[in-house]
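During the first year of the project, the team set up a workflow for recording each protein of interest as an amino acid sequence followed immediately by a discrete structure-token representation. This format lets reviewers and collaborators read both layers of information side by side without switching files. As required by the reporting guidelines, we include two representative entries from the current panel. The first entry is reproduced here exactly as it appears in our internal archive.
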Amino acid sequence: MEEPRTSFQEMPISAFQQALASKAPVPGGGGAAALAGALAASLLTMVGSLTVGKKKYAACEAALREKMAEMEKAAGRLLSLVDADAKAFAPLSQAYSLPSDTKEEQETKDQVLEQCLRDAAAVPLAILEEVTGIAQELHDFCEMGSVLARSDVGCAAALAGAAGKSAALNVYVNTRLMKDRAYAKDLDGRCLALELNCTALSEESAQAVEAFLRAPRRNA
């Protein structure tokens, strides 16, 4: 199987959706997780854009602009990881087709597979790290951002939570096949810690936003 020649991050949305829905092995869950994370970061940037320049929020404008810049960078990195995830899968798919008729061939195949599994797990772990960083900013955007855009912070929280869980699953699907169980256990531990943190932060913000939106208006 050849590595994907198309940059998925440069595809029109409809083309990416069709590629995702096809029987092609990439893009897949890892790419979808990275895209969801990028959307979460972009929503937070939008919240900032709707806030800066307003006198009511002047006190936090400088801090908010810094956070917006970080979210823009995070979104860019996550979009790059859409392609990185696809490229990491190609060698793994090829490794399963290596000959294994002799002892030497089997040993070579096992070594190649093990390295490919490590490489394939590294990308979704990087996605999870990026998304966890986004989740850590949710509270501040909720507090500093325009109240009129608070629902968008909630949407970002929901997307970040889904992206983090999806990325974690794409780590575990690779570690479970590794022969080096000590390495796999270590990677699983790192992944689980990030996943739990990302989930907790995302759910906390999503619930806070929903509670705010469902509460009766003071002037009602």
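The second entry, processed by the same pipeline in the following quarter, appears below.
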Amino acid sequence: MKKLIALFPIILFSLFAMAQPNIKEAATIPMFSVSFAYQMPQQDMADRFGPNSNVGAAFTLKVKKGWLVGIDASYLFGGDIKEENLLNGILTSDGHIINQYGEFANFVMSERGYFAGVKLGKVINLAKSSPNSGLYVTGTLGFLEHHIRIENQGNNTPQILGDYNKGYDRLTNGLAAKAFVGYMYIGKNQFANFFGGVEYLQSWTQSRRDYNFDTHETDTHKRNDNMIGIRVGWIVPLYRRVPDNYFTF
């Protein structure tokens, strides 16, 4: 495994150096992409969180016939927490937490999580003038994890720090699958390539904490944490540009 990891930069460099396709024809193209999505939670996810943002990165290899394979990872975040009674047991009557100095604690709750997986798909060409572009369809099998982040400014409130924090953070993870349907454009300009479309993520998750302090019990509920959203991304094909004209002297 260590030898394989050590060889990865060499393999990547070789792909970059060797893959110099004529972009006027369908070609095998390794590519790197970054993306942004706005997602709406569904089912159990909607009971815990509101809409979230998501930033992602992927490495993908597309072959001449349009089939592709790649690895995909994304980081999700949001500020709409629907677990309204989460901290009731440690709040004062007017809704504050008292820190170790007897003052009102400053804290913020937010959503954090990530998804990572392996994707397979195809680019279905729609126009001969753009042979590497078209309808972009993928399926990704991977792993989803999310939790409620409780951030205490000054780290001066023991009730929500360390192991106590874990009793409220609702750490949850499990198997996930994502489907994407959209459009991919690969043109003559190496830096003017993009994709966009709709994605749906289905997951089968469960709490990974032994005990929730607010409910005084272990959460054994099997969850369906699903999300639907719009994703747009920028693509950098990893090949050197082939000149359109050649001159002989």
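For the second entry, the following points were noted during internal review. The chain has one domain: 2-237. The chain has a mean pLDDT of 89. Both points are flagged for discussion at the upcoming steering committee meeting.
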